[in-house]
Amino acid sequence: MNTKTIKLAALALVTAGFVTAAVAGEDAFTALDTNADGSISSEEATANEALYKGWEAADANQDGSVDAAEFSAFEAKVMPAETK
């Protein structure tokens, strides 16, 4: 293996580490809003058991979706720390 290949491999590993850290640090709302439309649908909520089970409480205005403010309020009151 030549030096150029080793350097490229090292760069790839470092880049992968940064990408992994960014995804791990992603907030729960963004992770659940898979289509990035600014709200969590009832279908998207199925990825989080606490949100799915507490859907009626989370969707405070009963419009069929949970926006960031509703999610924050629900998360603060209902969701266990390990699911945040």
Please tell me about this protein's structure.
Keywords: Signal. Residues 26-44, 57-74 form the EF-hand domain. With 84 residues, this protein is mainly α. It has a single domain, classed as Orthogonal Bundle (Recoverin, domain 1). The protein is built from six helices and two strands. The chain has helices at residues 3-24, 28-32, 42-45, 49-53, 55-58, 68-77; strands spanning 39-41, 65-67. The chain has a two-stranded antiparallel ribbon with strand order 1-2. The termini are far apart.
The assigned structural class equals mainly alpha
Q: What is the level-2 CATH architecture name? A: Orthogonal Bundle
% residues in beta strands:
5-15%
Q: Label the overall shape.
A: elongated
Rounded to the nearest angstrom, the radius of gyration is: 18 Å
Largest β sheet strand count, sense and barrel closure: 2 strands, antiparallel
Strand order of the largest sheet: 1-2
- The helix content, as a percent range, equals 55-70%
Describe this structure in a few short sentences.
With 84 residues, the chain is mainly alpha-helical.
Describe the protein's topology.
Blueprint: H1 3-24, H2 28-32, E1 39-41, H3 42-45, H4 49-53, H5 55-58, E2 65-67, H6 68-77
Question: Main attributes?
Answer:
mainly alpha, 84 residues, 6 helices
